Amino acid sequence: MSSPSTENSIARAAALINDADALVIAAGAGFGVDSGLPDFRGTEGFWKAYPALAKSGIAFQDIASPDAFHAHAQQAWGFYGHRLALYRRTRPHAGFSLLRKWGGMKRHGYSVFTSNVDGQFEVAGFDPMRLHECHGSIHHLQCLQPCTEAVWPADGVDPVVDEARCELTSPLPRCPHCGGIARPNILMFGDWSWISKRQDLQETRQQRWLAQVRQPVVIELGAGTAIATVRHFAHRIVRQHNGRLVRINPREPQVADPRDVGLAMGALDALGAIDAALESMQS
Fold first, then answer.
1. Phi and psi at residue 152, in whole multiples of 5°?
2. Number of independent structural domains in the chain
3. pLDDT per residue over 94-126, tens digit each?
């Protein structure tokens, strides 16, 4: 049973969404939790998901790095190959469909900004032309060196991973241009060789779309302050595009402006409650 203050916040969030001419979805790692995905919150959370790396004392920043591919490609691909297989078999939770429905009701539609590399928005039926994956996508590859600026789909990669050792046992993915090792087209830690052209094109499309909106609402989901990329984006939209913010985060829901709304809830529960409030308003 939610409290009166929570009910009031849900109603205010629904009103902001109802009045907006465009929906901006800003999603961090916490948005995938309701689909069963880990968010790697802190070193302990990461090591719980990857005990083989915990045994070696390898932190997320160590394995999510081009240096890991240069030093021990089988282990780096063990980590990313496991994630690739996990994301491929994960079904997006019902909150994705609610956001797509709301966006379809807006005059200018919707646009997505996400730091997640899992490709879940596309699986959930979102228009790829309306996605901005600011850290890239695990479903695309590039050369480790890199020998060219080429980026290509990972469709042909079918990783087999020894999870007890976090090592790839199938052949290493290779660059079709030079035959060297391929890596995910993801912005990693200490990464000076990430090829950002795919993300740059997405950003250009999003900026072109934002230029036409006049009263957007940003729904920020599962985006914390530890790596604040998504939060910075949300604040910029509110500041530069006359927007308002609905922040959904069970641990860090605070908002600075009283006109905005913060909900200390999980994404799926919050979106379901807002959808019920929207239906009541529109009936």
1. -140, 155
2. 1
3. 999 999 999 999 999 999 999 999 999 999 999
Q: How far apart are the first and last CA of the chain?
A: 24
Name residue 74's amino acid.
Q
CATH number, residue 208 = 3.40.50.1220
Per the DSSP assignment, residues forming a β-bridge with 167 are: 162
Q: Which ranges of the chain would DSSP assign to H, the alpha helix?
A: 4-19, 42-49, 51-56, 60-63, 66-71, 73-89, 94-104, 120-123, 197-210, 229-240, 267-282
Instruction: Specify which residues 217 forms β-bridges with.
Output: 23, 244
Q: What is the mean pLDDT of residues 46-74?
A: 94
Q: Cβ contacts of residue 234 below 8 Å, gap of 6+? A: 24, 26, 218, 220, 223, 245, 247
Q: In terms of residue numbers, what domain contains 158?
A: 4-282
Contacts of 274 (CB under 8 A, 6+ apart): 10, 13, 14, 17, 98, 246
pTM of the full predicted structure? 0.96
Q: What is the amino acid identity at position 274?
A: I
Please tell me the distance from the alpha carbon of residue 107 to that of residue 111, in angstroms, as a whole number.
12
